[in-house]
């Protein structure tokens, strides 16, 4: 059974408690954007106490700021966010590989497929080896990026998947 087959039933249950959420304004009320990992163990709404309508949450593999930049620009310039919090986490899969090895793995999945080989060679998977250093690098990238609005408050954090605790790095 595919996961999508549960969507309609789950949505029916959600709609029962939806209330007036349809009236939430488009801009996030806390003027906050969070960049975090796509890891399914992470629920930033729960561990940060954020409710719908309060913050933009941008998720990608590793919670990498470079990959989130397009969304940050839109969030800041069109929707008024003025604070960014970068969250990486313990036990992240991004520390388990490097770009050349992943490119090889993808190419080996379909040997001789030149289109696939060419496409994967164009991707930098933005992996990292040191969790705290990666947070510092992402914060620095955002603080120094001319596309991020001047005066934006940027903080960096690590979420511990084993305890649920967060701690500030930057």
**C-alpha Rg (nearest Å):** 18 Å
Give the fraction of residues assigned to helices: 25-40%
Report the sheet-strand fraction.
Answer: 15-25%
Distance between the first and last residues' Cα: 44 Å
SSE order, one letter for each helix or strand? HEHEHEHHHEE
Strand order of the biggest β-sheet: 2-1-3-4-5
Total strands: 5
Biggest sheet details: 5 strands, mixed
Task: Estimate the mean pLDDT confidence.
Answer: 97
Total helical segments: 6
Label the structural class: alpha/beta
Shape estimate:
globular
What low-confidence regions span 5 or more consecutive residues with pLDDT below 50?
none
Describe the structure.
With 170 residues, the protein is α/β, with parallel strands linked by helices. It has helices spanning 7-16, 44-48, 65-79, 99-108, 114-121, 131-144; strands at 32-37, 55-60, 83-89, 153-159, 166-168. It has a 5-stranded mixed sheet, with helices on one face. Helix 2 links the parallel strand 1 (32-37) and strand 2. The radius of gyration is 18 Å and the shape is globular.
Please describe the structure with a list of short key phrases separated by commas or semicolons:
single chain; 170 residues; alpha/beta; five-stranded mixed β-sheet; 6 helices; 5 strands; 17% strand; globular
SSE arrangement:
Layout: H1 7-16, E1 32-37, H2 44-48, E2 55-60, H3 65-79, E3 83-89, H4 99-108, H5 114-121, H6 131-144, E4 153-159, E5 166-168
Parallel strand pairs: 1-2, 1-3, 3-4
Antiparallel strand pairs: 4-5
